[in-house]
Amino acid sequence: MQFSKESLFTEARSHKQFDGKALSDDDLQAIYELSKFAPTANNSCPLRIVFVNTIESMQRLASCALDFNQDKTKTTGSAAILAYDLDFHHEFAYLAPHMKQPTAHASWPIDRIERYAIANANLQAGFFIVAARALGFDCGPMGGFDVNAVESKFFNGTRWKFNCVVLLGRGDYSALHPRAPRLSFEQACRII
Ligand SMILES: Cc1cc2nc3c(=O)[nH]c(=O)nc-3n(C[C@H](O)[C@H](O)[C@H](O)COP(=O)(O)O)c2cc1C
Fold this sequence. Notes:
By secondary structure, the chain is of the alpha+beta class. The protein has a single domain (5-188), classed as NADH Oxidase. It has helices at 5-10, 25-35, 55-62, 67-74, 92-95, 110-134, 147-154, 185-188; strands at 47-52, 78-85, 138-142, 160-169.
């Protein structure tokens, strides 16, 4: 697989329209197998993913999309629903054998647990997008969904919380607005 800073960053876009073809299960697994190497605090790995990969399940996901995201979701072949698991710390004995107190998080208040989970799952989400691009796929990240509907239809019986959806496939560059500007180095950064 050939990739470059252009294909990963400067020319890659957040796509709104795809060719409608589903990825193979092997492709979905390959994206995960790369993105799982994202660094997280204490190797906590709070990201959880439901890959949506049939016409029926994509329709079910589209029924949870806010108006402006419905057509985009309906016409795309594959998507990943990215979640963070409030029970992420249950895996510490496996994920962080070096930890001195692997059960310490169990006594944390829920808002602290949630902040930690979101911060680290967002890092993993960024890696997920770059992993998909590295394997030659385009991404359409979207947060505009009915959170309760997604959680009850896709995460039932878990303590997974909705983060965002990433549409997956081959994007149509002609359907995009011109790239919006980014903050300049001077606006966003300081060297001290
Ligand atoms: C967490 C997140 C939520 C987003 N939500 C939506 C959304 O609900 N609908 C949509 O069309 N685009 C959504 N976007 C896409 C952003 O608008 C897009 O990433 C941003 O404008 C940069 O576009 P570019 O990558 O093409 O430069 C979302 C992106 C992210 C990362």
